[in-house]
Structures are given as structure tokens and as C-alpha cells.
Amino acid sequence: MALVSDLMKLINATSVVMANHPNLQDHLRRVLEWEFNQGPVDLRHVRSLVSSPRLMSMNVRAFSHPALVEAGDTFLDSRTMLADYPQKTRAISLANYLDLVDAVEIIDEYHPHDASVMKLQIWPYEPGDLNEFAMAVAVALSYTPAELMAESRISLAIDELVSAWGFYTDEF
User: Fold this and answer.
1) Any long-range contacts for 111-114 (C-beta under 8 Å, 24+ apart)?
2) Cα atoms in the 13 Å half-sphere on the side-chain side of 122
3) Within 10 A of 65 (CB to CB), how many other CB atoms are there?
4) CA-based Rg of the chain, rounded to a whole angstrom?
5) No. of H helices and E strands in the chain?
6) DSSP-derived secondary structure letter, 3
7) In the structure, what pLDDT confidence band is assigned to residue 170 with cuts at 50, 70 and 90?
8) Closest-CA residue to 117 (of 30, 37, 59)
9) Cβ contact 62:115 at 8 Å
10) Dist CA 168 CA 164 (whole Å)
């Protein structure tokens, strides 16, 4: 029976969930129990356990909608020392985006100081339904490794954000 229990733990440990998983923080604490017992946990472990929420992203003419939520650099700017760009980053669910798609104006080129443009991320679920921990994880995972390598200040801001929950980003 102990062997079956050990195998189930291995099977559960390799499952990938989304950031809207119920009790994401408890789930990660359970799956990464050994790592947490050693001290703070590198967020790269989470990248193997939780999928990125970003299905697609684009630059669009800024608009207002009740389902839009701060994401990316804008989310980090409001919670860390990271300074945001004039183009704010917002996330919206795929369902809401599909309702708006005909009204959204995609922008291919813009001036770096043009605040009438926003960065829009499309997520598979309602970003506004996430608690602070799940949102922090989702935002961290929404960055690609290439984006993190190109802009080291983002990794530093993510590190500042997730340290409250016992994570760090040395190898993220």
C-alpha cells in the first residue's frame, strides 16, 4: 500500500495545473513540500507545475472594460519597485475577448511614449477571479524566458513579489 501511495505522489507531482487551480498555494506547498523544507523555493519549479496563462498578447488601442485586470509590468509596477512603460498591460479572459474582438483595434506600430496603446494579454480564465498569490504566480509565468533574459529588472521585481510566499527567482 505504501508503494501505491508513493506512486500517487509521483503522479500528482508531475501534473500541470493552471493558476486558477483551487487553493493553488496549498497545492504547490504540498507538491513542493521537500523543497520548502530545505528553505525558499526557486520559482522555476513552479514553471514545471503551473502553466502560463498567456494564450496570446497584442498591442491594442487602449479601452476600458470591467473584466480587464492589471497584468505583466503594470501588475509588478503596482506592487514592486518596477517602473512601468506608458503602455499599460492588462489581461482579459478568452471568453470576454471573443465578445470584444470586433471592437478591439490592434496596433502594429506606436511611439514609445504613446499611452493610448495598451498591451493586452488573453488568458484562458478570468484573471480577476484569482487571489493575490495565484495572480502573482500567473503574472510571473506569463513572461517568456526570452522576455526575462532581455529585461533583468522583471526577474528582480518578480523575486521581490514572490519572496513573501517563500519563493525566489535566481534561475527563473
Assistant:
1) 112/85, 112/86, 113/86, 114/86, 114/87
2) 15
3) 14
4) 17
5) 9, 6
6) H
7) confident
8) 59
9) yes
10) 9
**The three cell numbers locating residue 146:** 526570452
Query: Which residues on adjacent β-strands are paired with residue 55?
Result: none
For the stretch 133-163, pLDDT in tens is: 999 999 999 999 999 999 989 999 999 999 9
Q: Which of 158, 144, 116, 172 is nearest to 56 (CA)?
A: 144
Q: Strand pairing partners for 89?
A: 119
Q: Rounded to whole angstroms, how far apart are CA atoms 89 and 24?
A: 24
Each residue's pLDDT tens digit, 18-71: 999 999 999 999 999 999 999 999 999 999 999 999 999 999 999 999 999 999
Domain of 66 in residue numbering reads as 2-168
For 42, list phi and psi in degrees, rounded to 5: -65, 130
Is residue 146 within 8 Å of residue 157, measured between CB atoms?
Answer: no
Task: Domain count for the chain, please give it.
Answer: 1
How far, in Å, CA of 56 to CA of 27, rounded? 26
Please classify residue 46 by burial: count the beta carbons closer than 10 Å to its beta carbon, then call 0-12 exposed, 13-18 middle and 19+ buried: buried
